[in-house]
């Protein structure tokens, strides 16, 4: 199944290209699939939250979004060789949609953010068919469902924050005529240009978390999940 288990959580071992190829085949077969980003913080949370654990493991692809997950795999002599970030996966799916002429829908964030994200993405991919968008503050769920279905989108990006976005996807997937569901957190802020992504050197070395910590010291408490996660992995390996 191209997955390995880390502290009870399934994680995909596929790299970007393999994931995109597999997803493209499933779209052409009109299958539905859910993509969820997995990082050390989320794995630690899932140890105490069985519903979160089930939510992650029931997804089609659990991408290793976090250098800690890659390190955990290496410690266990696993097959995860590289990170697959949420925003990186979104970029790859935009490229795929542009090439294969798939329809895209953006749901989430503030009105001005999602609108600006749509405009900037369209500048990068002039031929990409973004057939609809709606902000994350709309309270009428039936309207949201109708708008997405009217768009004939094959790929839906949901930016509501985790795990809210994944819960929304789980609750509404059967009502939606969409093939690919991906929760993308704050990615619309990045695509809109309102938030800068870490410099390439931080991305390539897996130190985006450190850059975010330097930019937002308030994240320090969240980053404590990484050493705790690696401790649990090592402890589990030796027992």
UniProtKB/TrEMBL annotation:
Biological process, per Gene Ontology: cell wall organization; teichoic acid biosynthetic process
Reactions listed under catalytic activity: UDP-N-acetyl-alpha-D-mannosamine + N-acetyl-alpha-D-glucosaminyl-di-trans,octa-cis-undecaprenyl diphosphate = N-acetyl-beta-D-mannosaminyl-(1->4)-N-acetyl-alpha-D-glucosaminyl di-trans,octa-cis-undecaprenyl diphosphate + UDP + H(+)
Pathway entry: Cell wall biogenesis; teichoic acid biosynthesis
A Pfam family hit: Glyco_tran_WecG
Principal EC category: transferase
Function: Catalyzes the conversion of GlcNAc-PP-undecaprenol into ManNAc-GlcNAc-PP-undecaprenol, the first committed lipid intermediate in the de novo synthesis of teichoic acid.
Name of this protein: N-acetylglucosaminyldiphosphoundecaprenol N-acetyl-beta-D-mannosaminyltransferase
UniProt source species: Robertmurraya kyonggiensis
Lineage: Bacteria, Bacillati, Bacillota, Bacilli, Bacillales
